[in-house]
Design brief:
This protein is an alpha/beta fold and 270 residues long. The chain has ten helices and seven strands. The protein has a single domain, classed as Rossmann fold, CATH 3.40.50. It has a seven-stranded mixed β-sheet, sandwiched between helices.
């Protein structure tokens, strides 16, 4: 997300921000601008999506009929993927427009019978029942209030089945990094997440990387100062340079990665 795009909605409450973002981008094309990087070109967001999918893939294997909770589901891209594999998926999101679009896209894919979508604040998550897999992708990084984030994690842990797994993908650099933070996004140090997981009674089963290529993180803070033509050229170059490194080494170069995948289970300890 660019600082310029974020500043256009600065001052909005979270629900208002996500609803405005959804109304602008959720129904457009593949909808990735609503859930990946706001205001960025399609090629950039497609790389983000592909990097995320590659990083998540080992942990998205579920048995037919498994109960899945997709927290911060947006337009339902992961809900549809898992439902297409036979899971019964519940998606929750703060934005009514996101939820409506998730339902529309699931219906278009013939997956309505295996998907349901609910408008709900994830910090006060209350679905009922437990889930074999809970998935949360790039939602916590937009919760600037640490207390609200802790509440969301606790509520997810309470909905996790005894032998279930919670898979979280967030901006969580292993080194302190704030250059890309905006009014609606913060890249918390990885140690902050690990501490909060312990506090919420969650045990780290695995950690892997997503996007170790440094080019995007170097570039993003400077984008608002560039004229639009130069901005697109710079983004295209950063995307082209990042793609092979992220694809080949994303999961392996965990300590160098800007985002991380955390696989969590019940129980304390690292």
């Amino acid at each position: 997300m660019t600082a310029g795009a974020a500043s256009s909605l600065t001052g909005c409450r979270p629900a208002e921000y996500w609803e405005a973002r959804a109304r602008r981008y959720a129904v457009e094309g593949d909808g990735l601008a609503a859930v990946c990087s706001y205001g960025m070109p399609g090629f950039y967001n497609r790389l983000i999506h592909l990097s995320q999918r590659r990083a998540l893939e080992p942990w998205l294997r579920t048995a037919a009929g498994a109960k899945v909770l997709d927290v911060g589901c947006g337009i339902g891209r992961w809900s549809r993927l898992l439902a297409s594999r036979g899971a019964r998926v519940t998606g929750v999101d703060l934005s009514p427009t996101m939820i409506a679009e998730a339902g529309r896209r699931a219906a278009a894919a013939g997956l309505t019978s295996r998907c349901r979508f609910i408008v709900q604040d994830c910090a006060a998550l209350e679905i009922g029942g437990s889930f074999d897999l809970i998935l949360c992708v790039t939602m916590l990084q937009h919760m600037l209030d640490l207390g609200a984030m802790r509440c969301a994690l606790r509520r997810m842990a309470q909905h996790l089945a005894p032998q279930g797994r919670l898979v979280i993908l967030e901006a969580a650099p292993a080194r302190t990094e704030s250059r890309c933070n905006t009014a609606v996004f913060t890249a918390r140090h990885r140690a902050v997440y690990l501490r909060l997981f312990r506090e919420c009674g969650l045990r780290v089963h695995a950690v892997s990387g997503v996007d170790p290529a440094p080019f995007k993180a170097w570039l993003l803070p400077h984008l608002p100062r560039l004229p639009r033509p130069l901005r697109i050229i710079a983004l295209a170059l950063a995307t082209a340079l990042s793609a092979p490194l992220d694809a080949l080494c994303g999961r392996l170069l965990t300590e160098r990665s800007w985002h991380a995948v955390f696989v969590l289970r019940h129980g304390s300890g690292d």
